Every structure is written in C-alpha cells, then in structure tokens.
Amino acid sequence: MGKDQTSSRINLFTESIIREMTRINNMHDGINLAQGFPDFDPPRELIDAAKAALDDGYNQYAITWGSPRLREALAEKFGWYNGVTVDPNKHITVACGGTEAMVSTMLAVIDPGDEVIIFEPFYENYGPDTLLSQGTPVYVQLYQQGDSFTFDPDELRRAFSKKTKAIVINTPHNPTGKVYSYDELKIIGDLCQEYDALAITDEPYEHILFDGDVHHSIASLPGMGTRTITVNSLSKTYSVTGWRIGWAIALDEKITTGIRRAHDFVTVGAAAPLQEAAAVALRFPKSYYEELAQGYAVRRDTMLSILGEMGFDYITPRGAYYVMTRYPDCGYDDDNEFSMFLSSKIGVTPVPGRAFYHDPKMGKPYIRFAFPKRPETFAKVRERLSKLASYRR
Ligand SMILES: Cc1ncc(COP(=O)(O)O)c(C=O)c1O
User: Fold this and answer.
1) At 68, is the pLDDT very low, low, confident or very high (cuts 50, 70, 90)?
2) Which atom of ligand 1 is nearest to the CA of 100?
C-alpha cells in the first residue's frame, strides 16, 4: 500500500451515521426508523406532473440555478408562508436537495478559519459541511427543559466573536423536534447584526408542526433579510426524499451569485423534469399543508404511545418527524450498542444519539426514531418492540 492519498480535510469527519444505519437495517431486514423518509407515496398529482414533464420534453439540463417556473413558484410561496418578498431571478438557487443547497451555501460564504456556530444536538451534515468549507464549527448547547429545548443567551453571546461568519439554525429541529420561538430568533438575529454575521437557516420541516406551534423564519425578522440564507427542500413537505430537489434563498445578491457559482461546479443542476413537477407542488392550496400537519400529529401520537408502552423516556417533539428518547435498561448503557441490539435482535433500527453531537459521549443517553410511517408499519413496530419486555432489567 502507498501513502494515504486522501486530503486532511476529508479525514476530519466520517461517513454519515444516519445513512449507515439504513445499511445496517437492511442487513437485518429491520424496520428502518433511522433515516427520515416516508414509507407512503407522495400526492398523486406530483407523480403525474413528473410523468408529464418527462413526456413534455424536460429531459435536458435546466438553467443551472433552477427552472424559471420553479423559481417563480418558490418566490410566491416564500412570500405567503415565510413573509419575505423575493425576486425569483436574483435570490433563488435550486439545488440537489437541501443537502446540496446547504453545502453550496457554506462553500460560497465561508473562508478558511471562519467560525460557524452550530446548535447542538444538530443534524449531522452541518459539521462536515463546515469542515469541507474550511470553517471551524463552534457548538452551542440546546438544553432540555422539561419537554422543550432552549439555549442560554449568555452562552450564545460568548460563542460569537470577530471570527464568527455564520450561525446555523434548524427549525423545526432535527433531532429534538424543537420549534424556535420568535423571541429566540430575535436574540440570534440581534447577535448576527451586532457581530456582522450571517444566519443560515435550514427549514425542511416548516409545515410539520404540532399543538398549534407556529413556524417563524429568521429571514422575516427586522434587519435579517439580507443577512439570512434560507435552505429548504421538497423532500419532507411533499414526501419525495428521493427526488433530490432543494433550494437556497439569499436576498443579498452577491451571496446568491456565490451560491450559484458553487452549485454550478458541484452539480450543474437538479433533475429538470422533477423541477417542473416541483413547481406544481409549491402551488398546492393551503389546505394541503394543514392536512400534512394533521397527518403527522396522528403519526407522532402513535409513535409516542408505542414508546410510552415500551418504557422509553422520550422528549415530545413540537415539530419535524423525529423523536429523541432515552432507552430502557436492557443491559446496554451506550447509544450505539443499544441501537445495534435493537436493529439486530428486535428488528427496529434507530439512530444512535452520537450522530447529533460532535463528542460521541454526549449522545450516549439517546437514540432517535423517525416516524413518517404508515399505520401498518407502526403496528409492526409495536409488535417488534414488545419483545423488549423479555430483555428488560
Ligand atoms: C434538518 C435537515 N436538513 C436537511 C436534510 C436533507 O434534506 P434533503 O433531502 O433536502 O437533502 C434533512 C434530511 O433528513 C434534515 O433533517
């Protein structure tokens, strides 16, 4: 073997634990409650729109930063739902999923040595995205307070410095289900303005809200319009995680130019026919989003009732489609060992808590389940998890 030819940057992180758990699940023929994807179909109209786009000749490259129809539909929806007026020609970049929109954004705005504040626990891509962009992640804890999570404003202030380039927000939050309040976003926005920093906000679960909670976009807060990059995606709201359509919206035109430049050389563009179908999705009536949230409230309650019955000490999510939970004593006091046991012996696969922390020790007490599933799947999960009783200590 010759010397290690990989870059020092690529060795700063490992493969995704979440996606690895899907592979482990498949080895055990388990029920995959690890990676967050629906096991039900997207709306019929969307599939028909995608088929029509293929028949109508949308089979070559779209404009690099997104089909005009999709960008217009995105601008309309960002106006009525997020409360921000955007120009589809100047402010929007369509990318291959929120995943690519996020990394293209970071590549566009981060210089070597810049610091990026990330609330922890965090969706695991933000760490590697920052490192690939040669930035330095600075972690700020979200503390559990009863059934909600919040940060300490003084601790957040201490994390900001002259080196801070951006802060990453994710609301509703994966993995905890936290929904950031207006007041919390105001604190973050004020610090961004004081320290001349950007807010990069990831909002793929913006319509999955429970118990009357409301989604706020930091882009709509006073002074934050041109300081914010909003990343979002078709994946969760329209149940099409495999379509790989996402976008970044930045009102600062220089930032949009930078994101488009990074995106152009990373992927050229997202699938053209699916972008046409996405434009149909973005124009669904408001009732679609209400029904989506109602459907997820039922799924959340089903998942929580199963976990309650089986002795899990869970944290009730306010939004998104995950539940973070402590696990019952079956002889394992390690998130990874418990997850492997659950996958191999019980046939239900979660994500070990370490996937959401920069220091694996911090995730040790937790695992995460995804619940975008059909009633039949929940019935099987209940049946399989009931086997835990014979392992309980
Ligand atoms: C918080 C968060 N951001 C981004 C993504 C990635 O979404 P996409 O499918 O649009 O790449 C996910 C997927 O699970 C997520 O949970």
Assistant:
1) very high
2) 11
